[in-house]
């Protein structure tokens, strides 16, 4: 179990450049299986989950050439489907959530796709019904081995269909799209998720020769094609990292510039931080956060009632930033209700913040009320364990704002999604060391 030691209470300063988007990378990498031609991808983040997926592709026989930092060429012209039946695949396939998106492209191109129950954060029930109901609609037969938690779909041929998804699942939508692009005829997906990750995936698939319309809406129309070809694709900056750095700057009263954020794709993120009273300035394509020397004040709703920040499928506010919002609110002036609608086990980490002196009432598994300290009382350093990727970074932000030295165990969770976080934070003045 890896550990960070963090000496908090110091201001940070400078520039930080976001890595390529983790959740986009996981979709895009699976899409390389859809063609036997070369796919060049840039801005791939060097993080544990992405590297695990690259390793899975390599074991599937995909040829991989590294061209420079974050740039790779992939060619799936000799895919070894036997690997899918190996014990090694059962072990490696459950190492991350993103591996589930291997199924759609394999089914679309080779008529079969298998996956063990995928890993990822333990933040609640993470069912896969939407994915498999979509594949079944396209004509696949479905098998599930309950003992081994092993899923399989097979089809002689996929045929386009109309579907209304039971929920706007992000990975589910990506998976169904990747199967439907090579199906015969027209597929419509209503209640499709439309996160920037999915917009990017559709743009990439269209540049490979797919025919997808409705991109960025919740109604996609996909006219199947016989074959897809190569392309070049560049990943967006990671909007969850960007949100994390906004929170970090505010909570440590630091002046920070977040470089090349691709403002147009940030949706509600800057405004939600503004509702906490944080100044988020647009400077070209950068975000500038001034030092909040006098703190920041949470806005009420127009009628004076207490602000609620909740998650919703895109273009709603992403659930992946609610833990960050919550920790930043602990030092604001005012109160806020955080409502995590999607995941039922994602707020339990507030116990650690309460131990550090934060004023939080966990109302139920989905809701927490935060009463900010307005920096009149700082958080106290402590020892904690990172339960999931975003809670881990929230605890890290809390530790950087706290007086004294904190210890965070299980930092593998953080490394899943944040590239060399300790090195990059040290470059802007953070006192953080990796001790094991
Ligand atoms: C690898 C990857 O891309 N992971 C992201 C992906 O996970 P993932 O694709 O696994 O998440 P889903 O979108 O399927 O669903 C997430 C949770 O929200 C619930 N749900 C979903 C849609 C909906 O309309 N209503 C609803 O309640 C689901 O039941 C589930 O509990 O999307 C999640 C939701 O943005 C993010 O937290 C994850 O970081
Ligand atoms: C929940 C997340 O990741 P995963 O879906 O990979 O567990 C996340 O990125 O916040």
Give a quick set of tags describing it.
single chain, 436 residues, alpha+beta, UDP-n-acetylglucosamine1-carboxyvinyl-transferase, Chain, 2 domains, 4-stranded mixed beta sheet, 23 strands, globular, binds uridine-diphosphate-N-acetylglucosamine, binds phosphoenolpyruvate, Enolpyruvate_Tfrase_sf, peptidoglycan synthesis
Question: If you had to describe this structure to a student in words, what would you say it looks like?
Answer:
- The protein is α+β, with helices and mostly antiparallel strands and 436 residues long.
- It folds into 2 domains: 3-19 and 237-434, UDP-n-acetylglucosamine1-carboxyvinyl-transferase, Chain, CATH 3.65.10; 22-234, Alpha-beta prism (UDP-n-acetylglucosamine1-carboxyvinyl-transferase, Chain).
- The chain is 29% helix and 24% strand.
- The chain is built from 14 helices and 23 strands.
- Strands 21-22-1-23 form a 4-stranded mixed β-sheet. A 4-stranded mixed β-sheet has the order 2-14-16-15, with helices on one face. A 4-stranded mixed β-sheet has the order 4-5-3-13, covered by helices on one side.
- A hairpin with a 2-residue loop joins strand 4 (63-68) and strand 5.
- Helix 5 (129-137) packs parallel to helix 6, helix 8 packs parallel to helix 10 (322-329) and helix 10 (322-329) runs parallel beside helix 12.
- The longest helix has 13 residues, at 239-251.
- The chain is globular and about 65 Å long.
- The mean pLDDT is 97.
- The structure holds uridine-diphosphate-N-acetylglucosamine (UD1) and phosphoenolpyruvate (PEP).
């Amino acid at each position: 179990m890896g550990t960070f030691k963090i000496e908090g209470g110091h201001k940070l300063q400078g520039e930080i450049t976001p890595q390529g988007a983790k959740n986009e990378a996981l979709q895009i990498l699976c899409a390389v299986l859809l063609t036997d031609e070369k796919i060049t991808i840039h801005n791939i983040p060097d993080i544990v989950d992405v590297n695990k997926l690259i390793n899975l592709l390599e074991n599937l026989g995909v040829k991989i050439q590294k061209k420079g930092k974050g740039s790779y060429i992939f060619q799936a012209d000799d895919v070894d489907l036997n690997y899918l039946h190996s014990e090694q695949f059962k072990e490696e396939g459950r190492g991350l959530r993103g591996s589930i998106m291997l199924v759609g492209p394999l089914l679309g191109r080779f008529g079969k796709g298998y996956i063990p129950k995928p890993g990822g954060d333990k933040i609640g029930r993470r069912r896969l019904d939407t994915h498999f109901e979509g594949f079944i609609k396209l004509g696949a037969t479905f098998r599930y081995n309950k003992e081994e938690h092993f899923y399989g779909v097979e089809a002689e041929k996929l045929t386009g269909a109309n579907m209304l998804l039971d929920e706007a699942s992000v990975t589910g939508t990506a998976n169904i799209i990747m199967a439907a692009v090579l199906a015969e005829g027209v597929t419509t997906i209503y209640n499709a998720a439309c996160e920037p990750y999915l917009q990017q995936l559709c743009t990439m698939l269209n540049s490979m020769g797919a025919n997808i319309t409705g991109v960025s809406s919740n109604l996609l129309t996909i006219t199947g094609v016989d074959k897809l070809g190569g392309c070049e694709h560049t990943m967006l900056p990671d909007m969850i990292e960007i949100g994390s750095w906004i929170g970090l700057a505010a909570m440590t009263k630091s002046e920070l510039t977040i470089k090349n954020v691709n403002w147009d794709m940030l949706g509600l993120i800057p405004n939600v931080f503004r509702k906490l009273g944080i100044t988020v300035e647009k400077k070209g394509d950068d975000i500038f956060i001034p030092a909040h020397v006098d703190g920041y004040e949470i806005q009420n709703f127009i009628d004076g009632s207490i602000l609620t920040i909740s998650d919703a499928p895109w273009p709603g506010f992403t659930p992946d930033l609610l833990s960050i919002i919550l920790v930043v609110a602990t030092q604001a002036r005012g109160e806020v209700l955080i409502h995590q609608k999607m995941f039922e086990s994602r707020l339990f980490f507030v116990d650690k913040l309460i131990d550090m002196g934060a004023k939080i009432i966990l109302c139920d598994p989905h809701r927490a009320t935060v009463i900010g300290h307005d920096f009149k009382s700082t958080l106290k350093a402590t020892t904690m364990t990172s339960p999931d990727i975003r809670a881990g970074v929230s605890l890290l932000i809390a530790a950087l704002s706290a007086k004294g030295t904190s210890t965070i165990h299980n930092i593998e969770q953080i490394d899943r999604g944040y590239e060399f976080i300790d090195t990059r934070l040290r470059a802007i003045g953070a006192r953080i060391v990796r001790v094991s």
